[in-house]
Amino acid sequence: MYNSVFWSALYYTKERLSGIPGIPEVKIRKKPILLQEDVIPIIIITPGKEDIGIETFDKIVEYIYEIQISYIRDGNRIYEEDVKEFLGIRQAIRNTLYQPLLPGSSTILDSVIETTPAFEVVSGESANYDISGMVVRYKSIEERVS
Description:
Number of domains: 1
Low-confidence stretches: none
Radius of gyration: 17 Å
Helix content: 10-25%
Largest sheet: 6 strands, mixed
Mean pLDDT: 87
CATH topology: STM4215-like
């Protein structure tokens, strides 16, 4: 079975988030989809795209791995309660991930975070959720195989 830098980034991102006090369950998925059996609140981590940053002549490449973080909880059309707690968890997630290194991963050396609006409300037929998210882009220096 292959091990990849992308998987390593997903796995160690989950490990870091799981270490935050009061954080809900963290899941790694292919897509940011809420399943019927999920317990709310939940954090879903999903892979995004891979980009090539800097290339050098001696086969060294900077790859950029994009990871989407989605924090989902009950909204129930309540717009004034728990704003402080929700923003506190969002800040804890951001501060934990916006670091120069990702402990456990041997090649990741930097991160850039792009946040989405603090509150996005998603409604369905019988449920309503508050969703907050961000995209983390990890940089990794790797040797190109040629």
